[in-house]
Each structure stands twice: as structure tokens, then as C-alpha cells.
Amino acid sequence: MILPTEQLQERIGYRFHNIHYLKQALTHSSYANETGAHNHHLLCNERLEFLGDSVLSLVTSDYLYRTFPNLPEGDLTRMRAATVCEEALASYSRKLGLGDFLLLGKGERNTGGADKPAVIADAFEAILAAIYLDATGGNEGMRAVSAFLLPFIEEAVKNLPDAGGYHADSKSRLQEFVQKDKGQPEYRLVNESGPDHNKTFVVEVYLDSNCIGRGTGHSKKTAEQAAARDALSLFGIEC
């Protein structure tokens, strides 16, 4: 028999050494209250959510800072806000089916708590903290959190409705630049690694037989855009 926590670990792509962290991340305060324990406030996921909020902000900020080196602070702040807001976090939770695994009090469960944005968004942040702590914190913890979180963030950034205001489509810009008299860029997938739910793709872009850019991402499209940005930098074009 596969335990629910086993199924969730498969979806997360991370196996916990101390399953207590995961179980606590899934425990809502309403459930902990019903235990009647005097320390029920320590048995729920609220403390983990507090830590996970900071981990979320740091990993996302680092990703945006490195991915968009020419954007001003204001644009980066708006992008971060759009990708870590309650609505965004709730959407990530729904992709995981996180609500199915939450431990909720009877009242919370009966009023649809398993799909309330505030509840499942907080649980997602608690999961981030659980991964961070289980991976011993520090650099190792941040790497483990990044592997889980960044595919969500990359997809969210790509789908921002006003993404054009943040950064132009690098592939289109490269296409416009080279087609004048230099030919047609060709994108080649040179490496693919990682499990199906968290793959990393490496793409190189060629002009004639020369490699002019290289990029990495958690989807082929993201890696191609990164390769195009790298090529534009080679030609001295800011992106």
C-alpha cells in the first residue's frame, strides 16, 4: 500500500529523511486545535509557513535577478509579487493536488478548506520550509528548494499577461537581428537531465556552424529563450 505521504513526495520530487517535517507542513491549525494538546500551536504548519515565506522570497528573487540582469528594481519587484502572491501559490498547490493531503479540522474540511486559496497557499510555503529544513538548511536546503520551486516560478513568469513589458521575446529579437543578412538561427537540444516532473534542458543556438549562445531551463522553450539572450549579449544587444 502506498501511503499518502509517499504519493506527495513523488509529486514534489523530493524524498524526506525526516517525514515529520512533511507531516507538520500538511497540518492545518484547525486540525491541531482538535487534538486538544496544550502545545497545539506548535503542531501545525504556521511556523513552517513563516520560514517558507522567506525561503520563497529569496529563491524567487535570486532567480529573477540572475535571469533578467538588465531589469530595474521596480520591474523585478513587480514580477516577484506576481509570482509569489496568494493566488499564484494557490495555483502551484492545485497543480500538486496539495489539498488532498492536508490535515484539516472537521469544520475547515466541511467548508472547503482543502481548496481555500489562503489555506493551500500557506501550505505550499510550509512545504518549502519543510524541504529546506530536511535538507539541513543553508546552501543544501536552498538547492533542494530551488529544484522543486523554480519550475513553478519559470512557468509563472513566462505566462505573465504583461510579460512584454518586462522583457521582449529574445528569440524574436534574435531572429529579427540575424535574418537581415546573417541567416537563420538554429536551436539544438544538447542535454536533458532530471526526472520527468523536474527536467533540466540545455539548448545551444547556432548561426551557420557556429554556436552563438547557450541556455538552460526547466522547459525547452525557457532554455531556448535563455540561449537567445546569450546570443544577443554576444552581439552587444541588451535584453
Detailed description of the structure:
The protein has 239 residues and is mainly alpha-helical. 58% of the residues lie in helices and 10% in strands. The chain contains 12 helices and 3 strands; from the N terminus they run αααααααααααβββα. It has helices at 4-12, 19-25, 29-34, 46-67, 73-84, 86-96, 106-110, 117-134, 138-158, 163-166, 170-178, 220-234, and strands spanning 185-193, 200-207, 210-217. Strands 1-2-3 form a 3-stranded antiparallel sheet. β2 and β3 (210-217) form a beta hairpin. The longest helix is centred in the first third of the chain and has 22 residues, at 46-67. The mean pLDDT is 88.
Supply the key terms.
12 helices; three-stranded antiparallel β-sheet; about 10% strand; about 240 residues; mainly alpha
Q: State the share of residues found in helices, binned by percent.
A: 55-70%
Distance between the termini: 51 Å
Strand order of the largest sheet: 1-2-3
Computed over alpha carbons, the radius of gyration is: 21 Å
Strand portion: 5-15%
Number of helices: 12
Number of strands: 3
What are the segments in which pLDDT stays under 50 over at least 5 consecutive residues?
none
Structural class: mainly alpha
Describe the main β-sheet briefly: 3 strands, antiparallel
Helix and strand succession? HHHHHHHHHHHEEEH
Backbone shape: elongated
- Write down the overall mean pLDDT: 88
Briefly summarize what is shown:
This protein is mostly helical. The protein has helices spanning 4-12, 19-25, 29-34, 46-67, 73-84, 86-96, 106-110, 117-134, 138-158, 163-166, 170-178, 220-234; strands at 185-193, 200-207, 210-217.
